[in-house]
Amino acid sequence: MALVKYNNNSISAITSAAAIPAGAMTLIKSQTASSSATISFVDGTSDVVLDSTYPIYLFKFIGIHPATNNASLTFQGNVSGGSDYNETMTTSWFYAGHNEGGSSTYLTYGTGADQAQGTSFQAIGAGINNNADDNTSGELWLFNPSSTTYVKHFMARTTAKGDEANDSYMSGYFNTTSAIDEIQFKMSSGNMDAGTIKLYGIKDS
């Protein structure tokens, strides 16, 4: 097969071409904490989209640092028209860890960090200390939040702390068939001293 070569004239002679496909993951909103009590993503507010535009939404946490010691990053949601961030959810949580000295390892279910038809803010990862180098990073996936037929599933994975590697897995669902259009994050105690939370929308495959 002969190698086809193009020159400037042949390229400039092109009159049409297929559209370049848009990326499957779109950054919707980025918020940075600064001694923040809460960070909220509310559909239709401050350029936030959290509706039927995307079937999957992804929150990424980057360098979340608590103001108080042993605080966990938590979240809750609101149905459309809600105001109290107290939707009913059922969740599970387990985590693994290994300290820097190599003297402690564990893999355990997070008893007390799960909910069975609870309405509290849900811990996403293990408690984070507030030493200068301690923080947590990870992600939370929210599936089909605009559905008015099904419950709303979510799952998260985070890595946390500064003196050990702590790998946490959490999953569950909002037990409502109403659309969820607001998500709020806060620490289990104290403020979110620093860090960034980004919201992405992911298109159908």
Describe the protein:
- With 205 residues, this protein is mostly beta strands.
- It has one domain: Sandwich (Jelly Rolls), CATH 2.60.120.
- Helices cover 2% and strands 48% of the residues.
- It contains 1 helix and 12 strands.
- It has one helix spanning 8-12; strands at 25-36, 39-42, 56-66, 73-79, 89-99, 105-109, 122-123, 136-143, 152-160, 164-174, 180-187, 192-202.
- The protein has an 8-stranded antiparallel β-sheet with strand order 1-12-3-8-9-10-5-6, with no helix packed on it.
- Strand 8 and strand 9 form a beta hairpin.
- The chain is globular, with a radius of gyration of 21 Å.
- The model has no long low-confidence stretch (mean pLDDT 90).
Reading side by side through the largest sheet, how are the strands ordered? 1-12-3-8-9-10-5-6
Helix content: under 10%
Shape: globular
Examine the coordinates and then state which fold CATH places here, giving the name of the CATH topology: Jelly Rolls
Query: Can you summarize the main beta sheet?
Result: 8 strands, antiparallel
Derived from helix and strand composition plus strand pairing, the structural class reads mainly beta
How far is it from the N-terminal to the C-terminal residue, by CA?
Answer: 35 Å
Strand runs, count:
12
Q: Estimate nothing, just give the exact number of structural domains.
A: 1
Question: What proportion of the residues form beta strands (DSSP E)?
Answer: over 45%
Contiguous runs where pLDDT drops below 50 for at least 5 residues: none
Seen as an oligomer or otherwise, the chain set is single chain
Radius of gyration: 21 Å
Helices and strands, in order, run as HEEEEEEEEEEEE
